[in-house]
From TrEMBL:
Record organism: Streptomyces argyrophylli
EC code: 3.4.24.77
Entry binding sites for Zn(2+): H168, H172, D178
GO molecular function annotations of the record: metalloendopeptidase activity; zinc ion binding
A Pfam cross-reference name: Peptidase_M7
Protein name: Extracellular small neutral protease
Cofactor binding annotation: Binds 1 zinc ion per subunit.
Gene designation per UniProt: snpA
Names of required cofactors: Zn(2+); Ca(2+)
Disulphide bridges, residue numbers: C184-C197
Amino acid sequence: MASFRSSTGSQQTRRLLTLALGLGLASAALGTASPASAHSAAQAPARTATAGYVGTADGAGSKAFFDAVLKSVAERQADQPSLKVVTVYYNASQAPSFRSQISSAASIWNSSVSNVKLQATSGTGDFTYYEGNDSRGSYASTNGHGSGYIFLDYAQNQQYDSVRVTAHETGHVLGLPDHYSGPCSELMSGGGPGPSCTNRYPNATERSRVNQLWANGLAKALAKVNRGG
């Protein structure tokens, strides 16, 4: 499993330190979310492949998540294959504490890439956001059956810039893997640069890669759907 890695010690140590300093103060300083309700990690769907903000990079998990979202979009777009820009719909109703961060992350990606756009829906989306407590931190996941979701962990989003965490996880939706050894200027470096990194934007290489993935990947997915594959 991959999640948002830190360069400052174990996640448990970081969380204890954060709690000692006061989560409320951290939240106020960073504009991060406080739990609106007692959602738990168990409420999120089962997962078989993951990629996220702390841990060892999992390229297979990232690809599985992207493929699940791509399949969902392709099935919906099959009758409109000529569209140059496709829309990926997300449902954020299961992560009410992070409504602002999710909206900001979507705006960041929408202003950064041209071949795909993110749009909120109150109905069935191509993926869903959840919130809760999980010792493994925040992550993007697929259940292996064509469904994907993003889980946002409360404590981790107090420790790190919450919009960066959310934008990073959303990057997996668009096809980008974790690259924890990268610099702060690289969004998919996640927690690698440490909590002081607050960059929320993908760099030029990441933007180009997403545009390429959605131009080529969607075309292949549409062809497969049209063949009945």
